[in-house]
Amino acid sequence: MVADLDAQKKIVIGFAAVFIFGFLACFPAVKGSFHFDDYHHIVNNQAVSKPPGWLYFFTNPESFSSLGKPTLYRPLTLISFALNQKLAKDRASWFLVFNVLIHSLNAGLFFLLLIRWQKQYLPALLGAAMFACAAVLSQPVNYVANRASLLAVFFVLLALIFDWPAPEKSSGAKTARIFLAAVCFWLAMLCKEIAVVFPALVLIEDLFLEGRSRKGLGVLAHALYWPSLAVFLGMRWMMFNTLGSNFYPRTITDNLLTQSKAVFFYIFKILWPAHLSMIPQITLGKGWADPLVLGALFLIAALSLASLVLIKRARVFGFVWSWFLIALVPSALIPLNVVVSEERVYLPSLGLVFGLVWLLDLALQKRKRLAYGCFCLLVLFQFGLLRDRTHAWKSESRLWRDNVNKSPQISAGYVMYALALIDHNKLALATNLLNKALVYDPKNPAAYSGLCRLYLQKRQPEAVKIYAQEYFQVSSHPSQKSEALAFLALAELAGGDLEQAGKAAQESLAINPRQAEALYVMAALALSRGEKDQAEQLGRQSLDVNPDLPQPLALVGLLLVQKGNILDAFPYLKKFTEEVPEDAAGWFNLGSAYSAMGEPEKARAAMKKALAIDKRYVKAYYGLANLDYNLGKKNDAYEEVSQALELEPEFPEARLLQAKLFVDQITKDILSTEAEKKELLIIVRKEIKWLKSKNIDTKELEDRLK
């Protein structure tokens, strides 16, 4: 009894040690930021920021992304994002802390499994420590959207622990553990689809590992797990009419051939992760005649056959190899946009690390100190590379700069780097990168999309038209074609061709009814027809899809100002300045809102910000003049309105304000002689006549003159 308690205490201490080590090793990740898919999954996803209810994620699969209905069903992952959002808003560090915690827990659970699999305490401890700081696993920790993998593996590991037979337990307790394993299996599948391999992992445990004798309970376990998998796949088919995706970037055969090469690429990167990059440099399989494909397929077949032939002599080898292959099956069967990704080895790496622990155990029988020393050096090597890799994840531009340095012939890396630079208004370098992306892949749709965004920001609609048409031609995915038409609509709108803008926007929305830019174009067209309510409704729909899109932010904000709803308008106008900080008009509109809200100092700061961006921005001079006039600073107001009229002599509102200042001089005896008063009176009457011709209300001015 005492021995059992001591053993349990050691296991608890080991779990805690692995957890703490993993947490400390990965903690620098919390200094990172959101990246690419994080924005449409989390930051811009209204379902996550304002969920209608916690069950909403189970009944509405489209809540997974703000971009439209995907073929992914991950309600538990979305609930975790919504909880993070509720606790920490859009602070990436809190989301990343949660990722670090889950990864550390996974390392602890892996330690518990290693104890069961290998029954050696110190090798299990070192193996779990290696998993905790494996550099190739940095992506799921540093990339918030990859939390789906972390959560799925967490529940898979729990399911495997519950499934493992406990000989000292009663038959009722053993049955209960199997049912708990089935529950964890379901929870894992509701986090990410990679968990579907769990029944196969249990099967190879039964086949290869010793100490798995379960008699009738094994039948019960598989009778629960495999039908559960079938039910889940049936649910997916009912929701999406497919088990995978409605669009594949390559054929299933081409993907299988490519992934056969990727098997050995992944093994190499797990053991020697010195050259990690977001989009590694690997070529697609070139058919059955490709020598690399043939070599990879031969090795896979040979190793698989060897694992079966040597099942009694080298059980662990068969288990390790089978685990690694089975865990890669989902990405091998379903062609994904990114050919290979570090994140996909999170579950497979557990099997490979177990293989290293097995080799350590064999080495301990002959060279104990040397074996421990070598394994500790391997852990330290991984730890150092993990720190270096985490540093690259601190910002979007740093991550993709690292990628193009390591994978210089991959077009997609240049595109992502360019998009990060566009967000920081570094347009010249972004232009060069996008053109370089097209050198490596002349038909890269993402490069044309990036060029459209870049020239929209440069306000060159003719260039946008050219690239939008090219984008449409090279695109195969419906969402890309919809976006290309939306860019064309924006260009036509900027060029003043409202008819063509409307036509392109309608074609875009026919493909994707949730295309944010196309919805904005329709809103702008409705406003041009005087249909303000319709314009506001379409603008809000656009923002439901992408809350950070600048154009509808300005449109909805200004429409609310016109209605007199200044408080409602303020968040839109302020958000616009955050998204487009170099837009002078945005700061002027924000300053006007502050003025209407009775905050003159904040209004003045916003107006001056507008002038710092554009010294010839007339409305900002007028805004400052209006502020000072209302505060009684007439001399300052006169200087500012004079500057406005010097830049734009026929600015009606500025001339009205100047006329008010002249009337003040007449009525308050500021002028010394009657002749000066009469002369100024003549000027004011001429101004009133001119203002009336411009449909400006001059009643207040005329009443004061009487």
Structural description of this entry:
The chain has helices at residues 2-26, 37-43, 46-49, 56-59, 75-88, 92-118, 121-132, 138-142, 147-163, 171-189, 198-208, 216-240, 252-271, 291-309, 315-327, 329-333, 348-364, 368-392, 396-406, 411-423, 427-440, 445-457, 461-474, 478-495, 498-511, 516-528, 532-545, 550-562, 566-579, 584-596, 600-613, 618-630, 634-647, 652-667, 674-693, 699-705. The mean pLDDT is 90. It is elongated. Among the domains are: 2-34 and 90-243 and 350-390, no CATH class; 653-706, no CATH class. Helix 31 packs antiparallel against helix 32. With 706 residues, it is mainly alpha-helical. It has 36 helices and no strands.
Proportion in helices: over 70%
Helical region count?
A: 36
Mean pLDDT: 90
Low-confidence parts: none
Q: Main sheet, how many strands, which sense, barrel?
A: none
Distance between the termini: 106 Å
The rounded Rg comes to 32 Å
Number of strands: 0
Strand content: under 5%
Q: Can you tell me the overall shape?
A: elongated
Structural class: mainly alpha
Write a brief caption for the model.
With 706 residues, this protein is mainly α.
Summarize the topology:
Blueprint: H1 2-26, H2 37-43, H3 46-49, H4 56-59, H5 75-88, H6 92-118, H7 121-132, H8 138-142, H9 147-163, H10 171-189, H11 198-208, H12 216-240, H13 252-271, H14 291-309, H15 315-327, H16 329-333, H17 348-364, H18 368-392, H19 396-406, H20 411-423, H21 427-440, H22 445-457, H23 461-474, H24 478-495, H25 498-511, H26 516-528, H27 532-545, H28 550-562, H29 566-579, H30 584-596, H31 600-613, H32 618-630, H33 634-647, H34 652-667, H35 674-693, H36 699-705
Helix pairs in contact: 1-6, 1-7, 5-6, 6-7, 6-9, 7-17, 7-18, 9-10, 10-12, 11-12, 11-15, 13-14, 14-15, 15-17, 17-18, 19-20, 20-21, 20-22, 21-22, 22-23, 22-24, 23-24, 24-25, 24-26, 25-26, 26-27, 27-28, 28-29, 29-30, 30-31, 30-32, 31-32, 32-33, 32-34, 33-34, 34-35
